[in-house]
Amino acid sequence: MDRRSLTSHLLLVGGALSCSTPALADFIKDSKASLELRNFYFNRDFRQHAAPQAKAEEWAQGFLLRYESGFTEGSIGVGLDAIGLLGVKLDSSPDRAGSGLLKRDREAPKRAQDEYGELGLTAKLRASKSTLKLGTLMPKLPVLLANDSRLLPQTFEGGQLNSLEIDGLTVDAGRLTQVNQRDSSDYEDMSITTVGVKNIRARQTTSDAFDFANLSYKWNDALTTGYGFGRLDDFYRQHYLSLNHLLALGDGQSLKSDLRFARSTDEGGSNVDNKAFGAMFTYGFGGHAVGLGYQRMSGDTGFAYVNGSDAYLVNFVQISDFANREERSWQARYDYNFAAIGIPGLTFMTRYLSGDGVELGAGREDGKEWERDTDIAYVVQSGPLKNVGVKWRNATVRSTNFGNDLDENRLILSYTLPLW
Q1: Three-state SS for 121?
Q2: CA triplet 12, 16, 17: central angle to 5 degrees?
Q3: Cβ contact 152:64 at 8 Å
Q4: Dihedral of the CA atoms 177, 180, 185, 186 (nearest 10)?
Q5: What is the DSSP string of 8-45?
Q6: 331/354 Cα distance (integer angstroms)
């Protein structure tokens, strides 16, 4: 369904609702709206020899207006969601553009535009414990994770059914037809990621259909398992298995296990062939959490996922995904929540990842890479500045025989104002 057709349907729904005032009671009463302000400074310093760009450095202000209606009364409830996005340039230049914060001109020098925006509408129908959404979507599923790591989020157009009919079982299924990237205001066909050295080749560049299905079953408060299927038409098919378990050890201690396995194969127009295994174990005690992770790629190519989205991998982190052909990677992570010593709202995270064995082709030495990340965040808990958040994200990446060497800093100020 294209945008014009969707808008027409929404107008018809709105007209029908306006003729039935009692049906609007829950539609209005259960609605909510919020405005998020997101101020984002991004600095990426490229350190490798002969880098095509010295650095990417931009500063921008984002406005995210979200509205969610309730549902009309009756056996089939009708609702409408909307999201308005606006990004405003505060500082940029052609030699420093490309941070992912701002939309750029298509022609050289690809200067960042002063502002860009998007309005997304989503019609929704609810029957029993199932909800169908048509329009603008931001899926959060293992086979497709919409990216929200910059000024404005990545959005998709399509349809998604969510069903909770069976206790403990969550079912999602649907089709997406287009994507609007985080630094764009234009919808376009989807493509496969080719970041890094993934050895993925395709006969075409884009696809207008991503089909998905996901089942997640919560056996009890400690154990959840899942299966997901994703298919980017003419590119790849992917099957995903996951297991999450939380073992309570007493005295404020716990052990969390996170296991993931994905099998990706070609869909006729590419050479995708990948098996991805990941495991993360996190020991928590008091305000501390110590984690160890392992990730292994095998097959003729690296891991496949929709371009611009996040990958559901244990070692997908701030910059790298450690998902190249035949790559093995380890992660050591430490988190601390300062609420344990009486400072609620303050959190700290640091991690180190190392990958090797990257297959670069005949006659070339294997590739290696490492990344170090640090996050410090604080959200004001009370007073006139309540809910104001500040986060500093720092990352360093170094690689051997492939990829970029870079240092990166992000400073994010945010505030979400509930409107009603």
Answers
A1: strand
A2: 115
A3: yes
A4: -40
A5: HHHHHHHHHHHT-GGGHHHHHHT-EEEEEEEEEEEEEE
A6: 7
Report the 10 Å Cβ neighbour count for 151: 30
- Residue 47: count of CB within 10 angstroms of its CB: 14
Task: Indicate whether 11 pLDDT > 60.
Answer: no
pLDDT of residue 18: 44
Kindly state the average pLDDT of the residues 93-99: 93
Q: 120, exposed or middle or buried, with CB in 10 Å at 0-12, 13-18, 19+?
A: buried
Under 8 Å between Cβ of 380 and 305: no
SS3 assignment for 331-349: EEEEEEEHHHHCCCCEEEE
Q: What is the maximum alpha-carbon separation in the chain?
A: 73
Q: Do residues 232 and 208 lie in contact, with contact meaning Cβ atoms separated by under 8 Å?
A: no
Distance CA 8, CA 312 (A): 36
151 closest CA partner among 81, 91, 237: 91
Q: What is the pLDDT of residue 194?
A: 82
Q: What is the mean pLDDT of residues 147-162?
A: 97
As a whole number of angstroms, the distance between CA 30 and CA 21 comes to 15
**Quick check: 211 pLDDT over 60?**
yes
